[in-house]
Design goal:
Length: 180
């Protein structure tokens, strides 16, 4: 009864015309209305969007699980490619990939300084399977001395892309990437 009075007080429409059943989303909106802006009666719509539990679970299964299973299966078959970084050098410094093929890029730093495998345009034109291997800007794989990282990617666009270590490009630490 107390909840009904609160709802009637906060609802800008006349309560006797519209009396929906109280749902979890509506209660949350009423609480938000009371704590956020108690002086304005109708600033928040009275009902939240709720799907029946079975329907929302079915949508989740259809939309999420098949996509993640298919993606996981494809990434597990990614072709391995290793690039070693040393002082001012990528080995190899010319890489070729095929559009639509999944790759596991293994970047290993055998040098004494930190290096970056920066292929910003390639990464932008690719599906990335594990973005946590990239820096926050999603432009490069950063490897400290003695460290190695794996990046899962699938090129979506053919073209020629620049490879660079931004800290050592002045000393010739650059390369070329081709996607056919």
């Amino acid at each position: 009864m107390r909840l009904q009075r609160l709802r009637d007080a906060l609802d800008s429409r006349r309560a006797h015309i519209y009396k929906p059943a109280v749902s979890g989303a509506q209660v949350a909106q009423l609480v938000e209305q009371r704590t956020e802006n108690p002086c304005v009666g109708g600033s928040i719509p009275p009902l939240g969007t709720i799907l029946p539990a079975g329907l929302s679970f079915a949508i989740l299964l259809v939309a999420v699980i098949p996509a993640s299973d298919a993606g996981a299966a494809e990434w597990s078959k990614a072709q391995p490619v290793t690039v070693v970084t040393t002082e001012s050098k990528f080995t190899p410094d010319k890489l070729a990939f095929r559009r639509g093929v999944a790759y596991r890029l293994h970047v290993e730093n055998r040098g004494t300084e930190m290096h970056e495998f920066n292929a910003a345009e390639l990464f932008k034109a690719s599906e990335i399977g594990n973005a946590e291997a990239l820096n926050a800007d999603r432009t490069e794989v950063v490897v400290h001395p003695g460290e190695a990282k794996d990046l899962l990617f699938r090129p979506k666009q053919a073209g020629h892309f620049h490879l660079v270590c931004p800290d050592h490009d002045w000393d010739g630490m650059t390369g070329e990437i081709t996607v056919e």
